[in-house]
Amino acid sequence: MEPSTLEPHKARRGEKTTLVGIAVNIGLVLVKGTAGWLGNSYALIADALESATDIVTSIFVWFGLRTASKAPDRNHPYGHGKAEPLAAMVVALALVGAAVLIAVQSVQNIQTPHEIPKPFTLAVLAGVVVIKEILFRRIAKVGAEVESSAVKADAWHHRSDAITSLTAFIGIGVALIGGPGYESADDWAALLASGFIIYNAYHIFRPSFGEIMDETPAGDWQPELEAIARQIPHVKGIDKYRVRKTGFEYFVDLHVLVPGELSVSEGHTIAHAVKAAIIAEKPAVYDVLVHIEPV
């Protein structure tokens, strides 16, 4: 059995941060929902709704990471890494759904007279913003270190929650300062937050979709790959190369230039040496397919 497409320690780190996010969001849903109901603030209730979607999507992320960490099998010879960006896309779509629901309810509340939110809701929202921003930074750091689009998406979901909480804080503050006639300020804040959420959803969806479509990773890999390949005797350079990302790992296809008078056996040996050198110097590369090109 070949090793997993995802390095086990990376998958475990991603799963751990996802579970921490789920635990925090369960507590925040209860706090924000209760405070919003008692404090007459739909913006805070909408914030609780987004935290609830955070829980659902984080569960998808957790399952995506678990699936992506499975070893290659007969039906999935390249591994299960695509489950990871698929989980990120689920997060993005869930964000859009939550944003639309918040926007619709906000418009309805703007058209319906209601009481000014209670002052204590500001303290709740201030605490939520701090907690969510800390959570975003922690999870985003892990996502960058393990190169996981799903973990990065989960982090941005927490950032969008912080944004909705911040806009709700501003809206409620305006309503309290303005007094009668400004009751719907927090509803306008919730409506504005829905736009930020959709923007964040695109920010999550676009790179994940590119990964599913085997889009070329950012940056020019050729100089580094060529420098590594030239360390092997008889290698004259690189003719072509292709790189695609699957889960946390990269797959490389390479055309290596060698003297035409070499034997098939010598070419075979060179190909294996180039592959081993690239994997040794670039641990994120899972596999290298080398084509020998005579010159």
Automatic annotation (TrEMBL):
InterPro entries: Cation_efflux, Cation_efflux_CTD, Cation_efflux_CTD_sf, Cation_efflux_TM, Cation_efflux_TMD_sf, CDF_Transporter. SUPFAM superfamilies: Cation efflux protein cytoplasmic domain-like, Cation efflux protein transmembrane domain-like. The chain crosses the membrane at residues 19-38, 44-65, 86-104, 116-135, 162-182, 188-205. It is a multi-pass membrane protein. It is found in: Membrane. Its main location: membrane. Belongs to the cation diffusion facilitator (CDF) transporter (TC 2.A.4) family. This is Cation diffusion facilitator family transporter.
